[in-house]
Each structure stands twice: as C-alpha cells, then as structure tokens.
Specification:
It contains 9 helices and no strands. With 194 residues, it is mainly α. Helix 5 runs antiparallel to helix 7. The longest helix has 30 residues. InterPro entries: YjdF-like. Keywords: Membrane, Transmembrane, Transmembrane helix. This is DUF2238 domain-containing protein.
C-alpha cells in the first residue's frame, strides 16, 4: 500500500489514469450541462466529481494510505451509477443494475470501514480480531445503505425525483442487496482479503 503523499500535487500525480478520466469527464460535464440549461444535471455532475475526489481528500488529509483499488473502484462506481445508471438509463434497461450497484457499494463500504478501523486501532495500539472487524464492517455498510434509502425517499418526497421507482418493492430490494453486499464485504474482511 502506498504511503500518504505530502502534498495535493503529489496525490493528484499519483492517481490512476482511470480516476483521471472519470474526473475529467465530470469536469467537462458540469459546464456542458450548464450551457445546455440543465442545472440539475450540472449539480449531479458536480456531486459526482465530489464523490470521485473522496479518496484523494482522505489521502491528503489523513495518515491513512488509500489503496489503489479504493480510488479506482470509487471512480468506476460513481461513473456506473450516475452516468450509466441515470443518464444512459441502465436502471430501467437492465433490471439487475440497481441491485448490483447497491450490493457493490455495500461491499466497498464494508471494506473501507474495516480499513479505517484497522488504521485507528493501530494508531491507539489496540488489537481487533477479524470477527470484530467484520462486525463493524457489516453494520457500517448496512447503516449506510439504510441512510441512502432515506435520502432517496427524501428526494422523491421533496423534489419529485422518482428514485424509488417501484416504491416499497424497490426499497426492500435495495436493502436486501445492501445487506448481501455488506455480508460479502464482512466475509472478505474476516478472511483478511479486504
């Protein structure tokens, strides 16, 4: 795992080309959407760029060494869900897309929660068993998935966004996919592979 860089410039230079391409895509999309008179889409591109920059921010603002898979995975996941899923309508075209996105995000959140817990435990000299790490990873991922569903409900209620296409069926499917993804992530943590 690479050591945290000393500067933002070093962190930017150390990013994977896939991450650069996704960042560039959203940097171009923001003014294009504004020029097309689509402020909501411009905001979505801006928010997506912010999500893609999270690993860089963590790398620059903490002593936590962010693995390459986290950086690339975050960029690809955001692109797959926001651009492919929303703009190219994969959520409607591919019935499994939503469940796969929720399961993948939950597994990634579980792995990242374990990474942060390992880092914090090392910093204070504590020893965490694989089972403890897996439990924290699982509960963190399930909680994040539930918070996401609350956010979708709020968007639908206050902004008439229709993110929960089938209502309860969509929400329950998402929660089940989140839980299964969290279980896979926790299992990988317990095995020591995440």
């Amino acid at each position: 795992m690479p050591a945290p860089p000393a500067t933002i410039r070093a962190a930017l230079a150390g990013q994977h080309p896939v991450t650069w391409l996704v960042q560039l895509f959203y940097l171009v999309a923001i003014p294009v959407q504004l020029a097309l008179g689509q402020p909501w889409e411009a905001f979505a591109a801006f928010a997506s760029l912010g999500l893609v920059l999270i690993p860089l921010s963590v790398r620059c603002n903490s002593r936590l060494a962010v693995p390459r898979w986290t950086e690339i995975g975050t960029a690809l996941f955001v692109f797959a869900t926001t651009f492919l899923g929303e703009r190219l309508d994969f959520y409607e075209r591919l019935p499994w897309w939503d469940a796969a996105a929720h399961a993948a995000s939950a597994a990634a959140v579980a792995a990242m929660a374990a990474m942060v817990m390992r880092h914090r435990a090392t910093a204070v000299g504590a020893r965490l068993t694989p089972g403890m790490l897996a439990a924290v990873a699982f509960t963190t991922a399930v909680c994040m998935g539930s918070l996401w569903e609350i956010l979708e409900f709020a968007f639908d209620t206050f902004f008439d966004a229709n993110t929960q296409k089938d209502g309860h069926l969509d929400t329950m499917g998402d929660i089940i996919a989140n839980t299964l993804g969290a279980a896979v992530g926790a299992w990988l943590v317990r095995r020591g592979t995440a």
